[in-house]
Amino acid sequence: ETGVTQTPRHLVMGMTNKKSLKCEQHLGHNAMYWYKQSAKKPLELMFVYNFKEQTENNSVPSRFSPECPNSSHLFLHLHTLQPEDSALYLCASSQVGALGEAFFGQGTRLTVV
Amino acid sequence: KQEVTQIPAALSVPEGENLVLNCSFTDSAIYNLQWFRQDPGKGLTSLLLIQSSQREQTSGRLNASLDKSSGRSTLYIAASQPGDSATYLCAPGGSGNTGKLIFGQGTTLQVKP
Asked: In 3D, which of B103, B87, B47, B44 has the Cα closest to residue A4?
């Protein structure tokens, strides 16, 4: 496996469900990110983790709960979502302190029904 | 707060044309700037990374320039091909190499055979 891998690729969940998105990076980077891409809107940064520590929460509702157990894995736990949370969720990683080039996964297409 | 504008929003050209995509940003205190390509429903593919001290970067038929002081970057695509059809995104990285990227709406390019 190379690059940044996200699972699942597609997810349909009801508003009362609990689900998790997974991201794994194989690049040896020290920072990982969650972005949200809604229709007709620019990508929005949600969370930033540097060296497993959360350094930014961009005013994201508490129904989104990130977890970073180590520098290679990032999760986004979802619960009691709303239909407007339907979007493409993208994970990225980069090496802070070096060139800083960011690499993205293929995303998880989330539909909340 | 960094704001990114990409012009034009959409572009349709015949194969073989040379193209210029424009990006402007409001805060010139950036660490770097990346250009990405996004195919429909997919993740982002990094095309070029320009450090704040650089003026341009080239990769194959792609050339990106950066004028940090005026808050502008340009992506030049030479001899466009139908396979270049995608959305192109510009993303300046914040000062201090935090890895945080701010995105514009992108330019959606269609290259007709």
From this structure: B44
B44 near A CB under 8 A: yes
Among candidates B89, B97, B104 on the partner chain, residue whose Cβ is nearest the Cβ of A97: B97
The separation between CA B51 and the C-alpha centre of its own chain, rounded to angstroms, equals 14
Distances, alpha carbon A4 to alpha carbons A20, A63, A92, B73, B107, in Å:
17, 24, 7, 27, 24
**Count helices and strands in chain B by DSSP H and E runs:** 0, 10
Tokens of B112: 């007709």
Interface of B with A in 89-108 (CB under 8 A): 89, 91, 93, 97-106
Q: Which two tokens stand for residue A31?
A: 């920072």
- Compute the nearest-CA separation of A45 from chain B (Å): 8
Picking from A19, A17, A29, the residue whose alpha carbon sits closest to that of residue A105 is A29
Say whether B106 and A94 touch across the interface (CB within 8 A).
no
pLDDT tens for each residue of A33-72: 999 999 888 999 999 998 888 888 888 999 999 999 999 9
Q: How many angstroms separate the CA atoms of A56 and A64, rounded?
A: 14
In three-state secondary structure terms, A84 is helix
